[in-house]
């Protein structure tokens, strides 16, 4: 009985001693990289100054700036347009937009039909269903809009206008035409430009066949 009491007393003392000071530091760890992940942790603390300047940390934490690789586009993200709107009186970016090509591939029949629908909703009221600049707002001069909108098909100026310059005008507005960036997303704007260019191509005169050199020689 006495021996049991001693065992209980010693055990209780050990338990009390163990619970009195919980050790948080595990001490020396063999191969710590196998025990603790050095990958980015969602809620890990980061120095805001270091985070903003993208400098390397001097401590043992892995720095991760959570930014995509420059020049990449996330899946489903709209195709970016790199040129900003020109300041008043400046045309630098408007001129530079001539070099921008349509990033969308050629439209299939269904996509072309949708582009036509978007054109009629957003553009046809001014430029007309036939792209002749005679929409309901102008109506041969009888409409509420006094100035004739641009003739997209049939006017050499607009038929020669590059796609990028058209996109710039639709995005930021040009002269009396306002911006349509809030009504149409970037893909829709590019698709409408595909539609306009397709209509212009149909209106272009067919190339004349080359003269037969043998016939000319006989004459």
TrEMBL record:
A GO molecular-function term, please? metal ion binding
Which positions make up the signal peptide? 1-17
Keyword Metal-binding assigned to the entry: answer is yes
* Keyword terms: Heme, Iron, Metal-binding, Signal
Q: Which domain of life is it from?
A: Bacteria
Domain Cytochrome c: residue ranges: 110-200
Q: Which PROSITE patterns match?
A: CYTC (PS51007), PROKAR_LIPOPROTEIN (PS51257)
Q: What is this protein called?
A: Cytochrome c
Traced from the root, the source organism's taxonomic lineage reads:
Bacteria, Pseudomonadati, Bacteroidota, Chitinophagia, Chitinophagales
């Amino acid at each position: 009985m006495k021996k049991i009491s001693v065992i209980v007393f010693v055990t209780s003392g050990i338990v009390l001693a163990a619970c009195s000071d919980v050790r948080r530091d595990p001490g020396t760890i063999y191969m710590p990289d196998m025990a603790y992940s050095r990958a980015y942790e969602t809620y890990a603390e980061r120095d805001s100054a270091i985070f903003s300047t993208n400098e390397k940390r001097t401590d043992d934490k892995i720095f991760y700036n959570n930014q995509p690789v420059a020049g990449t586009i996330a899946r489903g993200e709209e195709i970016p347009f790199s040129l900003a709107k020109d300041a008043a009186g400046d045309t630098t970016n408007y001129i530079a937009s001539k070099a921008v090509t349509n990033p969308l591939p050629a439209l299939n029949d269904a996509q072309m039909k949708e582009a036509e629908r978007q054109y009629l909703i957003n553009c046809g009221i001014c430029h007309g269903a036939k792209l002749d600049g005679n929409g309901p707002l102008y109506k041969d001069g009888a409409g509420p809009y006094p100035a004739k909108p641009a003739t997209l098909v049939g006017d050499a100026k607009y038929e020669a206008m590059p796609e990028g310059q058209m996109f710039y005008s639709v995005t930021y507005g040009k002269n009396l035409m306002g911006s349509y960036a809030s009504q149409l997303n970037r893909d829709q704007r590019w698709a409408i430009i595909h539609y306009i260019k397709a209509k212009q191509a149909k209106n272009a005169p067919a190339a004349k066949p080359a003269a037969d050199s043998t016939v000319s020689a006989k004459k």
